[in-house]
Write a structure and sequence with these properties.
Elements (H helix, E strand, L loop, with lengths): L5 E2 L7 H9 L22 E2 L3 E3 L4 H27 L26 H10 L14 E8 L8 E10 L15 H12 L16 H14 L3 E5 L2 H6 L2 H4 L5 E6 L4 H10 L2 E5 L4 H14 L10 E7 L11 H10 L3 E5 L14 H5 L8 E5 L9 E5 L1 H10 L1 H4 L6 H15 L6 H22 L3 E5 L7 E2 L8
Helix pairs in contact: 1-9, 2-3, 4-14, 5-14, 14-15
Length: 471
Amino acid sequence: RIQILFELGDMPPESDAQRRVDELGPTGNLPSPLKVERECKSDDDEFVYDASFEDPPLLTVLSVYMGLSLLVLFGHLRDLLRRWGWDKTMTDSQESTNEGFVPLYNDFEAFYTRNVYQRVCHFWNKPLAGVPGAEIEIWDRQFGEYNERPKMLPTKKKYINIGSYNYLGFAENNGTCARQTITEISDGFGGGVGSARAELGTLSVHAELEKLVAEFVGKEDSLVFGMGFGTNSLNIPSLVDNPGCLLISDELNHASLILGARLSGAKIKVFKHNNMKDLERVIRTAIVEGQPRTRRPWKKVLIVVEGVYSMEGTTCNLPEIVAIKNKYKAYLYVDEAHSIGALGATGRGVCEAYGVHPRDIDILMGTFSKSFGAAGGYIAADKDVIAHLRTESHAQTYATSMSPPVCRQILASMKSIMGIDGTGEGQRRIKQLAENTKFFRHSLQKRGYIIYGDEYSPVVPLLTYTMPRCW
């Protein structure tokens, strides 16, 4: 169980902010699709949060900045030589067929691609030759001079896979999940739907999946979508849909959350990563000041965080965030893309890991592309919220419905995690993931590597600092 060190209720109330909240509340007593009854109950009032953010040695910092400075300097020199025709590398990156047209991109925007990425691109975008399991096969490639114009070779090599987010190994080509997916294609609804959910794209397998998702995460109802990125970016605008709403976002939120916030038209305020004092300062100040110019109370206040941050490996301080959102009568949206299936004794995500009841979270979002080995995403909430999204969400109205075989893959893997299939395989994989994560993290630390994140987070960022292969 992940723990966080603080005492609930130790934040002193601010008289002006509390008075404004008590009198008007951030919702301004206006109708809202996010009307829910919330209780904040916990067996313990004390939590312990243990996130590693080790500072690098001063010598390492100086060498990194010196290396980057030299890289920029020599990059500009090479660009100058290319302009004079003395350097023939990366000539394909420049637009040459649209003379007289305004360039489609700024030449300086490709500076990193020309002078850094091109030198190390053989490490990236590797074509896979099999499923992303514990071991992975990758096709060999042959690169031309200066790593230009790579060619595929008929040979392949096997590697240990530590870069995939197939956390529980359900993205496989054999076993129960694979068999049920194949059966769905041949004997079920086929490979695709060809319509949006709001029109002719809702099948019985979608209804079955939504019922199971709601049961799994502990909410009344849910909606599933064919794309995880679109689940955030296309549904947030339906929840806070005018400038009178306030959206408070962690500074390290995923790009899909940022895009959804920008598309919503709501006023956006950002707080420092996992800094609860700054979160309270932001929300308190916003409530006291009200909307810009008019100073009217906000129609809705929505706090948006992630369960596990995919680049930092940290988990959100969920109990304290719940305490703050209840104190200031705000709503809470938690993105569990990397935590659902991977955290908690039974894989039910950051809520289970912290012992927070799902009813304390207004909107639970997650994706199926990580622990479930499939694709797409879900939103789980109270029935009235889901009913609102069924008619207002662009992902529901315009996006193509989730493929039936993908639904079947998710159903099979989720039933395995829940133990419905009677095999215990899902629980074994969850336990194995926790053990592997702890072993891998501690082994790196013993060898002197600097890593970030929480001890049980499946995301383990390893900081290398330098790019020796660029020279």
